[in-house]
Amino acid sequence: MKSSLLAVSAAVVVATLVTGLKDRAALQEKFGLGAAGKPAPELMMMGRIKPTDAPAGNPEFNAQLVADKIEAITSPPPAPDRSEPDAAASQPAAPRTAAPPAQTVAHPAPVTPPIVSEPPAPQQAAAAPQPAVDESALRYFASRGDKVRLQAEISRLQALYPNWVPPADPLAVPQNGDKQLEAMWQLYSDGRYAELRKAVADRQAADAGWQPPADLLDRLDVAEARARLLNASDLKQYATVVDIAAATPSLLTCSEIDVLWRVAEAFIQTERAQRGQDAYTYILKNCTNPAERQATVEKASTLLAYQPMQALLALERPAADGSKEFDAIRDNLARRFMAEGDDDPNLAIAPDYIARLERLAETEGLASDALLLGWYQLRRNNDADAEKWFRAARAKQDSAAASQGLALALIARKAPEEAEDVMFRWRANSDDATATYLAATANLMALQPPADLAEEVLHRIATEVIARKYVPTAQQFGWYARSLNQFQTAARWFETALAWKPDDEPSAYGLVITREQLSDRKGVLDLQRAWAGRSSRITNLQDTSSLMPNAVTPPPAKGGLVAQQPAQPTQRPPAEPLPAERRVTLQPGAEVVVRAARPAMETMTVPRGPRQTRGCSTTIDAGQLKPADALSRGWCLMDINRPMEAISAFEAALQSPARKVREDAAYGQSLAYLRAGLSGNAAVAATKAPQNRQRAAELQVAILADRALSAFDAGRYRETLIYLDQRAQLQQERIDLMVLRGYCYLNLKMYGDATRIFEAAAATGSRDAARGLADVRNVTHPDTNN
To answer: What is the Cα–Cα distance from 647 to 578, expressed in whole angstroms?
Structure first.
């Protein structure tokens, strides 16, 4: 029985040695490590990873057969399944599974530790061709009942000492007289490396003639390096990860797959994507565990671009049933690649991936898949296909993204009326959605012949344009009114557009020709003087009887939505007027009237130095200015009531390295958002730089007041009361906000509270409060009021 067991053990050792040497040869070729018996090269060779195939001549190795033989030695319970004999790695905090064998030593020289995943095994430097074998680690693992590490140690010792024969009963616990060394192995096994260092030092201090096993120290060095690498990776200190890996090449094997993943990520995050790709290539060429290979591709797909991923997928191995090993994740890969194609219009995705995603969209019916296809086609100007998929996405789930994509496709095929209707519901969902809606309105108003729009559509478009101060559509309202021969209305729209953007030449041109047709010679001369040297067609205005500019606003850029500027108008024949009863009744500046007059925005004193308004009346890119100049321009734009442009200027000023500039920029941007009625954005802007207590309190009071007004306008009266209560805790409530509170109670049918608030406010002489009292009486005593 004993001789049979010895024979089986010898066979297992030889097979395991072949496998370990195979992984060692691959490691040497991939990362530049020296061959057996040669000194290791410079550690920075790790930075020049050049993936190649594993060395030729190594036969394919049946890992399962070796695992079965190990199980035969160690008996129950079975060891954890591994795809190759060196696939176990050690964690810093706890012992792991089996490790690969070390490199064979052909002459008396210290043996370089193979990889960090090897379990501890003390080893003295060889002093003779057949040195004595240190079996302390073997005995330790046997005493702990760690059969996996026990077998790994047997394989390692057999690789180091070919003439060594393992004990007949490897699970027996021979008497070990060195209890201190056994305690050291215990510390190593528990991951208590600092305590192990101290124990070694203490024993050397007490016993000058004692030397720790070289293998114990080597394993300790590698284990500590692995712990440092994992910690640096978790902290996203990617340069440190690369440095540690370069200094510890024994970590870079298939048994340390997690380390290889982290090193690949570190390369990519430090702008060395090719080396990261090489690391993933090494795994796919040399490692055989199916789950680890699949996880490698999934991890790589989140970090590498489309083209490098195709090179990795080319290393896919066929399965026994004729399928491919990555088929299980190919659907998600197709989605990932299509999303990348959505962002890059110049990226051509293989037709196979597009066809796969189309099948998924049709069979699984996910709106997200249809959206990916829609944006991909839209970015490539395939508007018909894009419209098809966006409609499919909206049929599954009507969302802002699907509606926005459909609206862009409709604008591209000159159907802005439907685009406006599709986007109206989602117009305030995001800045991109707002830009898309406004672009649709501008293109709708610019249609020729003019669209026959319902009064309701005209009203809602005008309301949004006024609320957003959107110049292109305001300008188009002017041309639209001209097409209906309503020149007074057209002039007011052009004037409104110029008030929002004084350097808008198309609006100025529309205004000057309209004033000419209204015989307003003084107005014409004023405009010509104002635009002298800036617009030849305004200063050299001739006969305007046949002028009707056709300024069509292009849709927002697909994939990168921005606020649009109007195109330069061109001359065209006059449009045929619509019937006289078809009138544009909305005038610029009209607002929806609510029962309570909207209180004015709170005024706050801004403690800052004097500034000049000169030089900010023209439109320039604030991003090209120095931060300090951008800050000055932002305040200048606020003075002339152009908050949306001021927001961009303050954003550029936020890039300043000076703390004071950043504080003022964040404060100014918050005020600009408040003036534009975007209290949510104002709250976000206030956090971009620390503010002093006074400014923080001012901003919070203003933001709460604006939110209360917005909630009241939307008919959310209980929410309005909450905001008013929060504001009242910070600052005494103003009379106009008291009136707003009273109307909230009135709309909630809390007539007693409404009366009390209106009476208190009316006592100060507020006419709005007096009207509120009259409204309460009209509701509660309709028979006694006129």
So the answer is: 41
The two tokens of residue 420 are: 């406006």
CA pair distance 291, 135, nearest whole angstrom: 35
Type of residue numbered 77: P
* pLDDT(242) > 70: yes
Alpha helical stretches, state H, 235-289: 238-247, 257-269, 273-286
Q: How many residues does the chain have?
A: 786
Instruction: Report how far residue 275's alpha carbon sits from residue 478's, in angstroms, rounded to the nearest whole number.
Output: 59
Handedness of CA 503, 509, 511, 512 (dihedral sign): positive
Distance CA 298, CA 707 (A): 44
Q: What is the DSSP string of 540-586?
A: T----TT-----PPPPPPTTS-----PPPP---PPPPPPPTT-----
Q: What mean pLDDT is predicted for residues 509-514?
A: 92
Distance separating alpha carbons of residues 404 and 375, to the nearest angstrom = 10
The CA distance from 127 to 376, in Å, is 68
**Residue 732 CB: number of other CB atoms within 10 A?**
7
Residue type, 374: G
pLDDT reading at 50 higher than 80: no
**Residue the block writes with tokens 């005494």:** 732
| Tokens matching residue 520 | 């307003």
Nearest of 380, 431, 348, 392 to residue 558 by alpha carbon: 380
CA distance 13 to 69: 10
Alpha-helix runs per DSSP H in 175-248: 179-189, 193-206, 214-234, 238-247
Exposed e or buried b per residue across 297-317, where buried means at least 16 C-beta atoms within 10 angstroms of its C-beta: bebbbebbebebbeebbebbe
Give first-to-last CA distance, the chain, whole Å: 117
Output the pLDDT for position 605: 38
Q: pLDDT tens digit string along 445-485?
A: 988 888 888 889 999 999 999 999 999 999 999 999 888 88
For the CA atoms of 240, 246, 250, 253, the dihedral, rounded to the nearest 10 degrees, stands at: 80
- Dihedral, 67, 73, 76, 82 alpha carbons, nearest 10: -20
Whether the CB-CB separation of 318 and 352 falls below 8 Å is answered with no
* Residue (of 91, 90, 86) closest to 27 by Cα position: 86
Mean per-residue pLDDT over the chain, rounded = 74
- Pick from 381, 317, 319: nearest CA to 346: 381
Q: Give the Cα separation of 77 and 571 in Å (integer).
A: 89
